[in-house]
Amino acid sequence: MSIPIKGISIPIVNRTMIIGEAQTLKVAFYPCDTTQRGVIWTIKYGSECARVEDGDKVRAITSGIAILRATSSHKCSISAECVVTIRATERTG
After folding, report:
1. Of 5, 42, 46, 91, which residue has the fewest beta carbons closer than 10 angstroms?
2. What would the mean pLDDT of 56-63 be, rounded to a whole number?
3. Which CATH architecture has domain 7-87?
4. Positive or negative torsion for Cα 67, 72, 75, 78
């Protein structure tokens, strides 16, 4: 039995990364038992700063800000966004 998706959210909506770092992207589905779990990640803003790899990872390319969007592959009107701030080095102190 198919359980339709009603929404998605991104648990980490603000990320900070350093150049060269890669992080796996995750979403939460509503309802949690939906059978429609496909997600497509895209970069809405800042494609010069970051890129999506292997479908579910973000890689920091250069300093700046990128906005990533997760869109349901079953219902394109369902999406969520997160902001990635990319720095040259980790902040100390």
Report:
1. 91
2. 96
3. Sandwich (2.60)
4. negative
